[in-house]
Amino acid sequence: MTETEDLRGLSPFRPVPSLVPVIEVRNLSKRYGGTVAVDGLTFTVRPGQVTGFLGPNGAGKSTTMRMMLDLERPSGGQVLINGSRYRLLPGPLRQVGALLEAGAVHPGRSAYHHLLWLAQSNRIPTARVREVLELVGLADVARKRVKGFSLGMGQRLGIAAALLGDPPVLLFDEPVNGLDPEGVRWIRNLMKGLAAEGRTVFVSSHLMSEMALTAERLIVIGRGRLLADTTVGGFIEAYAHSYVRIRTPEPERMRDALTAAGIGVRQAADGALETHGAQAPEIGELAAAHGLTVHEVSTQSATLEEAFMRLTEDTVEYRAVGGQR
Ligand SMILES: Nc1ncnc2c1ncn2[C@@H]1O[C@H](COP(=O)(O)OP(=O)(O)OP(=O)(O)O)[C@@H](O)[C@H]1O
Predict the structure, then answer these.
(1) Which of 29, 32, 38, 172 should be mutated for ligand 1, with most atoms under 8 A from CB?
(2) Per the database record, which ranges form the ABC transporter domain (predicted)?
(3) Cα(304) to centroid of ligand 1, in Å?
(4) What are the backbone dihedrals phi and psi of residue 50, each rounded to the nearest 5 degrees, phi first?
(5) What is the spatial distance between Cα 81 and Cα 170, in angstroms, rounded to a whole number?
(6) Which atom of ligand 1 approaches the CA of 325 most closely?
(7) Residue 308 above 70 pLDDT?
(8) Sheet of 23-32, strands arranged across
(9) Which of 93, 146, 164, 239 is 20 to 30 A distant from 259 in Cα terms?
């Protein structure tokens, strides 16, 4: 079939209407032999915002997403998308778009023909293929064979496929892996834009810092279990504690003044003092009251990456030498 040919007898393309596009995960579990990959997960993903799905390597993110799409059978529990199991959804590509892994494309095919094949097998009009190629910035290379594509181009093609049916629910598994900063920013903005249109956008990552820029809500898992289901703001408040850093030529006197005021203090490797028990203005006033010279009193925020590491450190899977799990 050529680009100009079209599917005949199709009504104009319209996405399947869905009142509330939600993903409901209920007591979901998956065992592989002795390995418990997913362990009793329950959470809901709602529309209008990007929900980040976070966890260290091996936490069970991909397994959960595969179960959402009925690519794996749960050992227990279930996932409902728009109130139904994925495989029972009518016109699934028009209801759920997914980017699971890059490279699942016939390498000899062009981007255009890959998408055309998908469109035809899902009764989506050919005109939509051009639209999504434009949308992801691949229109100029649409006729090139996929085997010559860079990682970033492959990711864009996967996203084009996910968007083909204009679905209200989108799942992306590690979409920014291996991309350059421009590609990362593009995907971030695309996801935010899709959520702003009222879609349900669920995106996995093991990078807290990236998710903090992209998502409004977070589902955090470790060893298959739910660790947090919260907003990004709530996560920062709960886990990313700040402290005050003090540099002074009189550290001993400063330490004594802080201790006498009931403020815990410890010395950092570079000789600065760090305290978690007080705000910077209080420390400045304490120093002034004791006639102490200070060169620095600054509030330091713990990074989200540190907070995430603390939350998940007990749950990081053991890796044998050589990277084997
Ligand atoms: N097909 C499989 N057979 C056996 N074990 C599996 C299979 N798929 C996943 N696992 C195991 O299930 C656990 C969860 O893996 P999963 O790939 O879901 O984690 P993840 O959070 O997506 O990790 P990553 O960030 O590394 O992709 C791991 O212990 C993994 O080795």
Answers:
(1) 32
(2) 23-248
(3) 24
(4) -85, 125
(5) 11
(6) 31
(7) yes
(8) 35-45, 23-32, 76-81
(9) 239
Q: Are 246 and 229 in contact (CB under 8 A)?
A: no
Whether complex ipTM tops 0.90: yes
Residue 325 lies in a domain: no
The pLDDT assigned to 310 comes to 77
Same domain, 295 and 253: yes
Q: Which residue has the tokens 């550290």?
A: 251
Residues 255 and 198 in one domain: no
Q: Give the Å distances, CA to CA, from 18 to 84, 90, 199, 214.
A: 12, 12, 10, 24
Q: Encode burial over 261-300: b for 16+ CB neighbours within 10 A, e otherwise.
A: eebebeeeeeebbebeebebeebeebbeeeebebeebeee
One domain for residues 83 and 192: yes
pLDDT value, residue 65: 95
Q: Return all residues near 145 (Cβ < 8 A) that are at least 6 apart.
A: 107, 108, 109, 110
Whose CA is closest to atom 11 on ligand 1? 37
Query: Minimum mean pLDDT among 1-15, 154-168, 241-255: which range?
Result: 1-15
- At residue 149 the predicted structure's pLDDT band, cuts being 50, 70 and 90, is confident
d(CA 62, ligand 1 centre) in Å: 7
Q: What is the Å distance from ligand 1's center to 299 Cα?
A: 39
Q: Does 198 share its domain with 54?
A: yes
- Pocket of ligand 1 contains residue 37 by CB under 6 Å: yes
Mean pLDDT (whole number) for 68-73: 94
User: 315: pLDDT confidence band, cut at 50, 70 and 90?
Assistant: low
pLDDT tens for residues 263-280?
999 998 899 999 987 899
Place of tokens 């049916």: 165
How many whole angstroms separate alpha carbon 305 and alpha carbon 316? 14
Could you tell me if 124 and 182 lie in one domain? Answer: yes
pTM of the complete model: 0.80
